[in-house]
Amino acid sequence: MTNVSAATTEHDVLVVGAGLAGLQCARTLQREGVNVAVWDAGDQVGGRIRTDLIDGFRLDRGFQVLNPAYPAIKEHIDINALGMQMFGSGVGVRSEDRFAMLVDPIREPALASELLRSGLLAPVDVIALARWAGPALAPPSWVKNARDAQRGESMDAVGLTGPLREVMEAFLAGVVLEDEGTTSMNFMRLLLRMFVFGSPGLPRLGMQALPQQIADELGDAVTTGVQVASIEQGRRRAIVHTADGRTASARLVVVATGATAAQSLVGVKAPEMKGVVADWFTMDEAPDMPPMLVVDGRGPKAGPVKNAAVISAAAPTYAPPGRHLVQASSLMHGGRSAATEQVLDHTGELFGVDTRGWQLIHRHEVPEALPSQPAPLRTRQAMRVSRSVIVAGDHMDTASIQGAMVSGERAAQGYLQHISHT
């Protein structure tokens, strides 16, 4: 990566934003010989996928996981090079009278007996869950185009109630950063399909290793520390102006920033954005918990934490030798977040431990962590703004790592098809 020079530059394609969408777009174009450059306002690549190194701990900005089952990940990323550290195939559940584990008995045969002892598998609820989640196994094209509804309404429709409903609500709230049941049922089924076919994990060097892998291939085409102030949209070329007075000209500008920044630059309306808070704690003695996410099966009134995990148990490289790391994720509502003390108390309840000796390493507040995905599901927004500007990002596809990469690839392929006919 280079520092931007004072000279005006000319490119075939200029990508504004070095998140997954922008990087994937640029890499596809560069491989086809297109003169492409990527500018990003941050000091490093990654967009919303960033990892901070604090006191020897790797802390992702807003707890995230990578599911290798995403088709775009399998196609475009060298998974082995990331050194994935996998979570267990299941979820821990705190109920009123016990701690239980809901696991995949095929992937976790040693824990199959825990599934039977969970007390969460009432036959009527299991049947209702199968009716609700079963369509996730259908081809993705069918799931996308099926009749849609809000998540909560769809669960009501199949009679999914009781403790199993509470567990599903808690787990899914931490995935889509929404606990009001308004997310598209079809989108939830697409996500559940990925959990069926793959287990999530964390790269050895943190989640930022994912976008960094793409950026490393792009080399000097990526420039950080460049704040784009405005874009002039011409019929043949676009002119990009930076905050420090520089300009660049390109046949096509791909605005691959966050949704709010894209709205400011080119007027594409941003969707509602969901926020998350990740509190990262260390302690002298690690909680005796399985290497999997833990949720509260007692309902949302039990506390603010949507999921928690002993990260160092699943991903040892996230903590210095001999140290332990726990994350706890809670949601932001209207820009407001729960106090760290509330999060700490609730995490202690989930794990069944005394947290008075725990130390807060860092708190990440990410108010625009994920675009909302309401019903009916729309997986492909129109990307073109004008003849010289298009917009890419997960807000133009689906609110996920998969959606970001697919959007970037769509932008690149659209340009390649255009120049092949001119």
Your description of this structure?
The chain is an alpha/beta fold. The protein contains 14 helices and 19 strands. The chain has helices at 20-31, 71-76, 79-82, 112-116, 123-133, 140-145, 151-157, 162-176, 185-197, 209-218, 259-266, 311-314, 340-351, 401-420, and strands at residues 9-16, 36-40, 51-54, 57-60, 85-86, 90-94, 99-103, 201-202, 222-224, 228-233, 238-242, 247-255, 273-282, 293-296, 305-310, 326-332, 359-371, 384-386, 389-391. Strands 1, 2, 9, 10, 11, 12, 18 and 19 form an eight-stranded mixed beta sheet that branches. A four-stranded antiparallel beta sheet has the order 15-16-13-17, with helices on both faces. Strand 1 (9-16), helix 1 (20-31) and strand 2 (36-40) form a beta-alpha-beta unit. Helix 1 (20-31) runs parallel beside helix 10 (209-218). The longest helix has 20 residues, at 401-420. The chain starts with 8 loop residues before the first strand and ends with a helix. The model is unreliable at 1-5 (pLDDT under 50).
